[in-house]
Each structure stands twice: as C-alpha cells, then as structure tokens.
Design a protein that fits this description.
This protein has six helices and five strands. It is α+β, with helices and mostly antiparallel strands and about 160 residues long. It has two domains: about 120 residues, Ribosomal protein L10, N-terminal RNA-binding domain (Alpha-Beta Plaits), CATH 3.30.70; about 45 residues. Helix 1 packs across helix 3 and helix 4 crosses helix 5. The longest helix has about 40 residues.
C-alpha cells in the first residue's frame, strides 16, 4: 500500500486532498467516475500510510493535510484532477478541498482553485498549434491572392469580349 501511494505521489502532476465525510456511495462513485474521465484517479488510504509514503519526497509538506476522512485525487496532467475536483465541489458541497501538491509545491485550497483555472495540457497544445499555424495560413492566402485576382480579371475580360 505504501509503495502504491509512493508511486501516486511521485508520478502525479497534481494531488488534491479533500475531506469526503458525508458522501454517499453513489456520490463517491460519481466522483471516481468524473476523475477517471478526466484522466485521473481517486484513492482513499489511511492517513498514517500516506504520511509514510510522503516521507522524503518533494510533496512531504502535504502530510499536514492528512487528518480525518481524506481522499486523494490525482492525475498525471497537472490540471486535470484539480479541475475535476473543483467541478464536483460545485455540485456537491460535502466534498471539502483541503489543499494538495503540485510536484514539490504544496497547495492550499486557493492554490487548488488557481490550478483548476489553468488551461489543461491539451488546451495549451491546441492554442500553440493555432498560433504556429496562423501565419502559415495567412502566407498561403497572400500567395494565392494575386493568382485569384488575375483569374478574376481574365474572366471579366473574356465576358467583355463575348459581349
């Protein structure tokens, strides 16, 4: 169990710690499904074991958050788990975000909210591709424009000769 938690802490881009007291089985299942769809996962573990797994890691400061009935939401994408948790807390107030860690940086509740507001990896890649592709599209349009103008002029001249 400690090894598995250690891998989660080491391989995840973000780990969010929350209290889940009062969540029904159906609500917890919905929470797990949302995280899975976002590319993340949910783990409920004994706080003592999680603190042991955190020892000597960059996210060791997160151990202070592990009190009470805690659940760990994690994802490789540094934004996906935080977004999924924030979306779930909008619909279900029983899940209370305590904080988390992003690599070696400890996050408080406001930090998790700030991370959730960031664009995801896929959104960043799409915006970079669009930015790179825009000048090429403009260049192709500028190169093709004179040929289109010449064709239009020739068509107009042919129409005048025919008339």
């Amino acid at each position: 169990m400690v090894e598995e938690l250690g891998r989660i802490f080491a391989d995840s881009g973000v780990v969010v710690v929350a209290h889940y007291e009062g969540l029904s089985v159906a609500e917890m299942t919905d929470f797990r499904l949302r995280l899975k769809q976002a590319g993340g996962g949910v783990r409920v573990a004994k706080n003592r074991l999680a603190k042991i797994a955190l020892k000597g890691t960059p996210g060791e400061k997160m151990g202070d958050l592990l009190t009470g009935m805690t659940v760990l939401a994690y994802s490789e994408d540094p934004v996906a788990a935080a977004k999924a948790v924030e979306d779930f807390t909008k619909v279900n107030k029983k899940l209370v975000v305590l904080g988390g860690a992003m690599g070696g940086t400890a996050l408080d509740q406001a930090g998790v909210t700030a991370v959730a507001a960031m664009p995801s990896r896929e959104e960043l890649i799409a915006s970079i591709v669009a930015t790179i592709g825009a000048p090429a599209a403009q260049l192709a349009g500028a190169i093709g424009a004179p040929a289109a103008n010449i064709a239009s002029i020739l068509t107009t001249l042919e129409e005048r000769e025919a008339a």
